[in-house]
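Reopening: High-affinity heme uptake system protein IsdE still failing for me.
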Amino acid sequence: MRRLLIVLSICLVVIAAGCSRSKEEPTAEAAESRIVSTTVAITEILDALEVDGVVGKPTSYKELPERYADAVETGNPMNPDLELIASLDPTDILSVTTLEYDLKPVFDEAGLPADYLDFTSLSAMQEEIAELGEKYDRTEQAAALNSRFKEKIDEIKARTADKERPKVLILLGVPGSYLVATDKSYIGDLVNQAGGENVVQGENVEYLASNTEYLQQSNPDVILRAAHGMPEEVVDMFDDEFKTNDIWKHFAAVQNDRVYDLEETLFGTTGNIAADKALDELYSMLYEE
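Support: Ran it again with your exact input. Result attached.
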């Protein structure tokens, strides 16, 4: 009988230890992860999830989380330094689906399989956040972050429920040129979430070449100008384009002073940690409140 009690006591200690470990310690996969995060958006999401183990981060003029101060800069998200990444002996390389077409063949050839996260819409990003939470044993943090986004989405929907949807044209400027963002783009999705109607819909791509005559016929109520890289230079380019190209003065949005430049830190080309703040900004622009 005494021997049986000793055995039972040992079993209870083992069970208790197992329960304590599941609550307080990360999974083996999370604890051993060596993550290379190749975009600012992913890096900020990982920080919000309190994920450690990031050994590589993108090179950027933007301020990156202090948590990853010691991580090695691995180059531009669109042209990462593969040799440097390989030297970090990563277990996970994280990029985004918008860059997969260009990066996958390069990473595969270098023997560096990467995961491409879908940040093309707010809902897709929320799904990826939940999966990252599962993978790195940060489910509570992931749930809290997604709850924050959901609360803002629900709030905006309630505020716009009885309002007429303004027609919106979204221009994405890059140094020397600009594209038109469709409803398949991340900013296009934000506009939809904020109650706007993108004038360019039904396409299978995120961005199209600009045709100003066609765009004028769409007669947008609001024009949003986003910058991708070198934002100050792009804003100057847009200003020059709108001053020198006579067709813009025929747009109702221009005539009514409804042209807005989007802050790049809030409105990236992919989903990011500032999505809820971006929705607030869009609401003010679309409804002038």
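The chain has two domains: 28-142, 162-287. If you still see a failure, please send the error message rather than a screenshot.
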